[in-house]
């Protein structure tokens, strides 16, 4: 399978390295940032790098557009006409975002949070596939199975909600970790004090539903503790408002139904 | 060490079992719920159970009051006079909550989320210790070290903030998992779709700070995606408000400083 990778960010890098480990590295890396393209290509046996549209290999089987959601259409518009399939990796973009630029299109969406410095076990990442026809879906599924045990189909509409749910379960939870780190720092407590708690909270929902796993003063409707916490947050009105809103949401979920 | 356990909930149960595995099971379990007391005591070699104050063993070294924060004072008031140390396990209660009821007092606060059905590795749970004098602190530290690698001292005031930070990092993040599960269910997506993402998000902050680990549209200030998500949440005004508030908080943390 001749794959051209368009992009050189975290997701592009992790996906290219996983394909390479599976014995099918991209044959070319195209990026608007020439230096990034060269750096990534140097890690992929046999791959070339370019930042120029006219140097793009035009007869590959698959062009994987691994660029950020907001850059997708600009990048697609900049690519020359090619053979093969164009598939993007952008959670919040419909497949049809590629429609004006190419005929045979699809989506290849690995649902994970990627950081440049951190290795992830790609084989456990679910990859969500969509294609403009069944042959595209089959080809993207076969590429997905090279690097993951968990390749699934979903529609553009489902993917929107998947991405939205991921923002809650990943980006927002990480922000709550960040707020808790600030609280620890401001009160002379070691920054890793909550690490075992964070690990256990995430481990629990690998086995049970989050509604079963819920604990804490809002779940118990322990108004004494809730009031005490709101008082402690008086000097931090933004955090106080977050506390109030999430506690109300928990009480609504578990409290007596009206 | 002769320990009497007061309480029979999740924290009491996990702590008693850990003490038992360490070769020092509580010698008695007292609980307002007689059935729970009997069930827990039956798992502890040599332990008796009671729900009656007059049957409490009165010459133990340590009375561990492992009851919920809001029940603590009622339970302490119901106990007869004894020798030894009284220590409570309630994150949001100051040590001095026990002062009206006993002289030699302390706090033994294992910072973790406990569920009845789920085993936890107690040895990795940090235990925060406080005592009315240095001898109490030393005794509680030695009990803590029987079951955990991580025994620390903190003041009542620090523990308040620790507990508050734990609500953000555990109870609120679990609630965000619960909201994301509801979104998946409403759009025909498998309930475990986000499990690898949740695991990775928590694993990242075991190694780096949460501010370094932050990703997502709010961090990138990707207003297109933010607007799209807010639109999807139109039918769910509570979730929309949570989305808006947490995204604003993220943008404030990472955006250009005023």
TrEMBL record, chains A, B:
DUF2520 domain ranges (all copies): 125-249
Limits of the Pyrroline-5-carboxylate reductase catalytic N-terminal domain: 2-79
InterPro entries: 6-PGluconate_DH-like_C_sf, DUF2520, NAD(P)-bd_dom_sf, P5C_Rdtase_cat_N, TM1727-like_C_sf
Pfam families: DUF2520, F420_oxidored
Annotated signal sequence range: none
Top-level taxonomic group: Bacteria
PANTHER family on file: CONSERVED HYPOTHETICAL ALANINE AND LEUCINE RICH PROTEIN
Name of the protein described by the UniProt record: F420-dependent NADP oxidoreductase
